[in-house]
Amino acid sequence: MVSRIILGVGTGVFVVTSYSTAANLALPGKQAGAMSNIALGFSASLVLGVPIGRVIASAYDWKLIFWGIGIFTVLGFIAIAKSIPSMESEAPVPLRKQLALLKTPKVAIALSVTFFVFIGYSVVNTYTTPVLTSVMSMGEGEVSTILFAIGIASSIGSKLGGFMADGIGTNRTLVISMIAHALSLAFLSVDEKSTFVAIVLLMVWAIAAWAFAPTQNFNLLSISPEASGIMLSLNATFVQLGFAAGAGIGGIAVDGSSILSICWIGAVSVAVAIAVMSVSFRLKRLLASTQR
Question: How far is 200 from 194, CA to CA, in rounded Å?
């Protein structure tokens, strides 16, 4: 448990720093695409790492996986030292001042959108395998294939989010991804008998969710560019809170109702995020009209 906590702390620091570094290194107008490349790396690592880890654990010893992670981490140290130039870092900010950013309406609204979207993602992601096995009566081989397909879709979504943000704008990309996210879950809860339709909807769901993540990071940077590191760390915190809340809500729903209820819960949660963002857009328009 202690080693897991240490790994989690290190991962959290690395994720925030990698997004911030990618944005700082990118050319003007290409920041969203650069940050989507980081998300693409994360999703691709899941696509490759999970099946490789399962094979190694079954064929050899599960401890060998951690030796491999250690070796790859050292290679990562070397790659960063050789390829990433030194940059001026932000001045240290006390935790109290960091949390004070939550009092800013536009920051609080943006982070609440993150929270509800990742509740919607986590409540389904946590119970994807039970849905496939119990509701759709799929075997182990079919489930593994579908999970691999979802992983590929996640990689596509990671890159698509940055491409769309650079092309049509951050706000439009966020809205489109959230609408696709909510609709795919709503349709999945209605049509659970068709395996083909379910696979397509799950892939759309994964693409939409992973297109949202890097775009939202870039959106938060644009809201408060002078505190980019803090904004990314706050967003990462709300992502994890959403994951935890979604998993807990999903567990309650599965015990008390049909397992497919998690799809409706996820769709409603993302719909709440869309409503919150719509309110923020109206507030921006009202503020702009009063300043004229």
Answer: 10
> Which candidate, 125, 132, 126, 131, places its Cα nearest to that of 259?
131
Q: Is 121 helix (H, G, I), strand (E, B) or coil?
A: helix
CA distance 231 to 205: 26
3-state helix, strand, coil in the chain (%, to 5): 85, 0, 15
3-state secondary structure of 259: coil
Q: What is the reported pLDDT for 289?
A: 61
Q: How far apart are CA 216 and CA 32, in angstroms?
A: 9
Superfamily of domain 2-291: MFS general substrate transporter like domains (1.20.1250.20)
In this prediction the pTM is: 0.79
| Tokens linked to 16 | 């925030």
d(Cα 252, Cα 262) in Å, to the nearest integer? Answer: 10
What mean pLDDT comes out for the span 201-208?
92
Sketch the domain layout of the chain as residue ranges: 2-291
Of the pLDDT bands very low, low, confident and very high (cuts 50, 70, 90), residue 206 is very high
pLDDT of 292 strictly over 70: no
Mean pLDDT of the chain: 83
